[in-house]
Amino acid sequence: xxYLLFEYLHKHYxxxxxxxxxxxxxxxxxxxxxxxxxxxxxxxxxxxFLHKKQVGETVRNLxxxxxxxxxxxxxxxxxxxxxxxxxPTLLFANISNxxxxxxxxxxxxMGAVGFLDDYIKVFKKNKEGLAGRFKVVGQVGLGLIVxxxxxxxxxxxxxxxxxxxxxxxSSVPMVLRQKGETFYYTQDVKSTKSNMPFYxxxxxxxxxxxxxxxxxxxKYGFFIFLIVTVFIITAVxxxxxxxxxxxxxxxxxxxxxxxxxxxxxxxxxxxIMADYLNIxxxxxxxELMIFAGAFVGSCVGFLWYNSYPAQIFMGDTGSLAIGGIxxxxxxxxxxxxxxxxxxxxxxxxxxxxxxxxxxxxxTKKKFGEGRRxxxxxxxxxxxxxxxxxxxxxxxxxxxxxxxxxxMTIVTLKLR
Length: 415
Fold this sequence. Notes:
The chain is mainly alpha-helical.
């Protein structure tokens, strides 16, 4: 809102300093600062309020060291994370930008699903919370919204170099550009392409999955893209939810991922950097850096109270929203195929649960007694059972997360 106001004032009045709001890096920096202020200052007040209302975590005794000491710790702290994201975004981002609108919808949508789950657990005293099928419906619903908007909205395009054989037949306007002494034409087009490392030109077209059908297979690319979008949002959202099991793990890991996504959004929206990294240039996507700044600021600010020993838990209000945000953000900047690397912590945590449950059911059916691969799942509980202190587990997972983030950026440069 302030961005649009200052744009208007700059256009009609010569007020010094208003040009600063035209710079994405400035607005992203201010967004981080405001987000940190909101989460740290008002986080304390939220903790006191939740204590007063006796909104505490109900802990099941799983035999983990120090676990029962967390009984009664305030939960639903994800509310302050959501506010720390939404308020700076609404103030400093261009809220007419379709990417920003989609991210606001994602934050509110998944935050509402998580809040409903926490509400049922805390106030209805139902430890199971919202039924799993309803969570999946919410995740799939968001995937459909994001996928359909990405495919059909006229302002969501990518810039491609026009090949010589289509210059005379293309109806899309072309722009002549220069790189060194070379001249070439580009055009902004709708596309089902995404960046994929170790693949030709670092690009993968979902429509090519159906190439075996022959004919005009491109028109069916939407369905593949939609399926991938729904799957990624569901998987990452659940992965973040499962990772949120010990103090500061999901919050710190998400902050690292958010920084990486913010960098990728900025370079994807910059023609020079996108060309250097050999990734698609996505017009107007750099505006997402303001949202990424608010997201990182919220995670870091919340970590002030969520680090060991945690004074507050984010609950599903925060973890489901964080996962949905990360997945949707990656899809919008066409980097969703990098998620297995970037979100490797979430992936391993999720897979450890799937493996544990599947193997237990299989061995119980075959041998009459269920057996386990890990001492306990998710993976961080396995290490707790082995005697590692949770602060050490979290720190090492953070280090791995930073290494994965660096690897994500490096793979983009590989050709």
